[in-house]
Amino acid sequence: MAGRGTVKPQSGFDANKDAEVLFKAMKGLGTDEATILQLLTSRSNAQRQQIKTAYKTLHGKDLVNDLKSELGGKFEDLVVGLMVTPVIFDVTTLRNAIKGAGTNEKALIEILASRTPNEIREIIKTYKQEYDHNLEDDVTGDTSGHFKRVLVILLQANRQQGVQTGNIQSDAQALFNAGEKKYGTDEDEFITILGNRSAEHLRQVFDAYMKLSGFQIEESIQRETSGGLRDVLLAIVKCARSVPAYFAECLYNSMKGAGTDDATLIRIMVSRSEIDLLDIRAEFRKLFATSLHKMIQNDVSGDYCKTLLLLCAGDDA
After folding, report:
1. What pTM value is reported for the model?
2. Residue range 191-212, pLDDT digits in tens
3. Measured between alpha carbons, how far is 211 from 299 in angstroms, rounded to an integer?
4. Which CA distances in Å does 304 have to 73, 79, 128, 222?
5. Which of 143, 127, 140 lies closest to 95, judged by CA?
6. Are the C-beta atoms of 70 and 29 separated by less than 8 Å?
7. What is the DSSP string of 111-160?
C-alpha cells in the first residue's frame, strides 16, 4: 500500500523558509488563508512537524496556537488535524469519542476496525503517554455488552496471520450455525471469528459462507445483530474485503443527503491522505455515480472546501 497517498513530501523542503511564509501569512491585519492552505497540503506530515519546530525556534511562538487564533470553524479543525502526527490525531479522536456525555461510536469503530495491529499498538502506547490512562479501560468504561467485547478484541491487536486453509469451511459453518440456521443469534461465534481471523482468511470464509447459506455475510449481520455490535461487525467485514472501499463508503455517507458529517469527512481526509487516498478515490468512483472531488465540491464551501480538494488532489470524472 506504500505511496498510495495524495500528499507527498516536498522535494527541496526548507522548514525555516516555510515557517517564515506562514508567519507572514498571519502577521498584521487579516490572514492570507490561501497561502496557508496551499503550503500545508503540499508538505508531508513529517515536514509539517519540522515546520512547527522551526516556527517556534525562529519566533518563540507555537504554530498551532497561532493557526487556531487566526482561523475558524471547520477550516481550523481541518488544518489543526493536518498539523498533528497521525498517531496523535487518532489518539485525540479516540479520547474525544470516549470522554464527555455519550460515546461517539462511529469514530471508535472506524479507527479500531481499520488500523493495522502495529498502528493499534502505537495508539495504545501514545494514549497512555498523553493521558496517563489505559485506552482499554477507558473504552470498556464507556461501552457495554457484545459491542464492548468486540472493541476489546480489536485492542488486543492479535489478529492471526495468513490463511488457515483447514478452518475456512468450519468457520463459515460456525457463522451459519450461529445466525441464519438457528432461532436467535449466537453472537459469540461472530465476535470470535470476525475479531481474530486475518483479512485474507476472512475473505475466503465469506466466499464459503455465501456458497453455504446463499447470503452475503453483510446481509446476515444486518439481520442477526443490531446497534453498535452490528456497526462494528460490518466495519470489520468491509475492512477485510477492502479498507479503501470501506473509507469510500464512509466518506459518501458523511456527505449524502442533507447536512454534512464534518468530523468524519475531516477524519478520513486527514488520516488517509498519505496512506491510500488514491485508492479510496478510485473505489469511490467505482461504487458511486460521482467522484470524491465532485461530491466534496457540492457539499462544502470556502477555504475548508479548497483544502479538502487539495488533499483529494484530482477529480476522477
Report:
1. 0.95
2. 999 999 999 999 999 999 999 9
3. 40
4. 9, 9, 32, 35
5. 127
6. no
7. HHHHS-HHHHHHHHHHHHHHHSS-HHHHHHHH--HHHHHHHHHHHHT-PP
Per-residue pLDDT tens for 206-261? 999 999 999 999 999 999 999 999 999 999 999 999 999 999 999 999 999 889 99
What single DSSP character describes residue 43? S
Cα distance between the two ends of the chain: 23
- Contact assessment for residue 40 and residue 308, using Cβ atoms and an 8 Å cutoff: no
Distance between CA atoms of 204 and 47, rounded to whole angstroms?
41
How far apart, in whole angstroms, are the C-alpha atoms of residue 50 and residue 186? 51
Cα angle for residues 225, 227, 228 (degrees, 5° grid): 105
Residues 79 and 65: their CA atoms lie apart, in Å, by: 11
- Decide if 72 contacts 82 (C-beta within 8 A): no
Backbone angles phi, psi at 26, to 5 degrees: -110, 0
State whether the Cα torsion 236-237-238-239 is positive or negative: positive
For residue 49, the one-letter residue type is Q
Amino acid at 249: E
- pLDDT exceeds 80 at position 1: no
